[in-house]
Amino acid sequence: MGVDQNPAAVAELFETVTVLMMRHVPAPDGLSLTAAATLGSLQRRGPQRITALAAAQGVTQPSMTQLLRRLEDAGLVARVAEPTDGRVVLVQLTAAGDETLRTRWETRLGHLETVLQTLTDEERATLQHAAEEALPVAQKLVNSLAARY
Amino acid sequence: MGVDQNPAAVAELFETVTVLMMRHVPAPDGLSLTAAATLGSLQRRGPQRITALAAAQGVTQPSMTQLLRRLEDAGLVARVAEPTDGRVVLVQLTAAGDETLRTRWETRLGHLETVLQTLTDEERATLQHAAEEALPVAQKLVNSLAARY
DNA sequence: CGTTTTACATAGGCAGACTATATAGATGGA
DNA sequence: TCCATCTATATAGTCTGCCTATGTAAAACG
Lengths: 149, 149
Fold this sequence. Notes:
Two copies of one chain form a homodimer. With 149 residues, the first copy, chain A, is mainly alpha-helical. Chain A contains six helices and three strands. In chain A, helix 3 (50-57) crosses helix 4. The structure holds a DNA duplex (30 and 30 nucleotides).
């Protein structure tokens, strides 16, 4: 069954996987998807201003301000003044935030491991091969998506 | 780069893709992820009881009742009595609900097409090959996930 | 035939998104 | 220099969608 012949199967599978992952593989930290992605961005790219974080996550600036207030209350991020521009607030990951992210991945990957055990060796190999093949292209696709918006 | 060597890269990529898809590829119908997945389930498997729908989507029964009330108000689903058990309410997709789902997939697939145009022919072929390879296994994985919960 | 269980509904609360608007600092031209 | 305007962030108010706790009616069971 080719993707071209049945694109809806792929799209629907993606939605199903998304629901199952998000709902049934909850993070142990209670972080929302946006919260986790924001922390991840801070971890990868270092301190950023609020407007940039909002744009990257595709939410409005007030939403990001509110989210960051919660994350700050939880001790996961810290606000730092930008010396060259008094309007700007730089947000950076705290050590606790970094640790929270690490634990999150560990937990979720552990769960993924468990689920993968329901497959045969051959099926796992197939999945791994496909993932390796698609990873660079998917990465490019994500970059292109992120650049568009 | 193997998945085993860098599983976090795959997991994080998945989360990134999810955020981008959910945020930047909004459906034209204002359906939430759970709403769309619920309608999809009704489309694929026919009328179901509320408890079953809640379990399938990983939400509580009151949440599903509330969601179905909204969907019923919008004319996308209908409640039908179960003759053999007076407690049970069967929910089924209406013609309008079916049409809404079709339009949804069309729109999202159209957007996907646009995004895929940013890739080269070779990259698209790679992606398609990987998708075709992984699809049956992924389908099994989803079934196994759905059965677990 | 009363008790327990099951299926669904209702009530109330919270998180996380939105729009509209306020405020403080930066910038640029008269 | 100073005022108008622009920019970065904060605040206020609202809505959706999830939760827990609880109510209600039908079924099942001893």
